[in-house]
Amino acid sequence: MVIDIHADVGKNRIFIRIEGQIDESQARSIGDAIIKQMDRLRPGFDVVSDLSRAEPLGPEGLAQFRRIVEAQRERKFGRAVRIVGRAAQTALQFARTSKEVEHEPYLAFSREEAERLLDGQLP
Fold this sequence. Notes:
Elements: E1 2-8, E2 13-20, H1 27-38, E3 46-54, H2 59-74, E4 80-83, H3 88-100, E5 106-108, H4 111-118
Parallel strand pairs: 2-3, 3-4, 4-5
Antiparallel strand pairs: 1-2
Helix pairs in contact: 1-2
């Protein structure tokens, strides 16, 4: 499992990259770390989540996903882009859960594409 969370204060963006399976026992601490990084940003911040190499989430991971989306709303996030690559099963799980919590991010196939979209270089 690889987790990379980075808040770019200058661009007012948070980058989240998950590879592999999130261990259920670590899901809460990962959620806490993501929220802590969001707190470094100003309202209107963008969220880029790279899930292209992530495995589907277990029950605690899904609960944390919902918690993170709610935290984004409370902090008045701007736009969200989810990098899905070719991870069809994981992308479908996140799409279903996102729909349940009324969270509809843009989709991208790479970080470069996500950045161009947020920088206004793509329609």
